[in-house]
């Protein structure tokens, strides 16, 4: 009787230890997965696409060459992380040869986990005597105005409602306005 009791107790003890070991292994795996997910938090990508031109006005007068237009663009914020990305209000700047010629605000929003947030922005653009004359008049004569867009989104990736990690996303795109067709060509984002 005594020995039987002892051996069943030993079996119970062994089972107990097996449970604890399995629990520890499971916990370690979960912690490792979380650490891996956190380490793999990547910068989201922000790009400009589907740009259309409205109200294009170009003056090629050699004394005061100028251009103005409205651009409608689709901004995409691609978030590949397993948590959502919440970003702050950001200024999107359009430049001609390094001189800002137009601005728009990207309004604070969140891009859901593993998805792409899309929104439209309208940017009114004007060369307004801000741009050096010589290069502008030769560009206008050639029929192509090259513009670039820049924005830096600042925000945080939120994981499991507890972990927040600062991440920024930078937009750097170039595009050409074909003034005879009133269209955008060669949109390239870095
Ligand atoms: C962000 O921009 C929107 C619209 O312009 C404004 O209503 C809001 O107050 C701004 N938020 C911050 C934190 O500045
Ligand atoms: C952006 O504008 C285009 C053209 O007006 C429209 O087809 C599209 O649905 C808009 N997209 C968003 C996300 O609002
Ligand atoms: C404007 O676009 C048209 C049609 O694609 C093309 O034939 C023309 O060469 C373009 N103009 C310039 C200056 O690239």
Automatic annotation (TrEMBL):
Record carries keyword Transmembrane helix: yes
Domain Late embryogenesis abundant protein LEA-2 subgroup: residue ranges: 75-174
UniProt keyword terms in alphabetical order: Membrane, Transmembrane, Transmembrane helix
Protein name: Late embryogenesis abundant protein, LEA-14
Record-level GO BP terms: defense response to other organism
GO cellular component: membrane
Segments traversing the membrane: 16-39
Organism: Corchorus capsularis
Signal peptide (from-to): none
Cellular localisation: Membrane
Chief place of localization: membrane
Keyword Membrane in record: yes
Entry membrane topology: Single-pass membrane protein
Database matches in Pfam families: LEA_2 (PF03168)
InterPro entries referenced in this protein's UniProt entry, alphabetically: LEA_2, NDR1-like
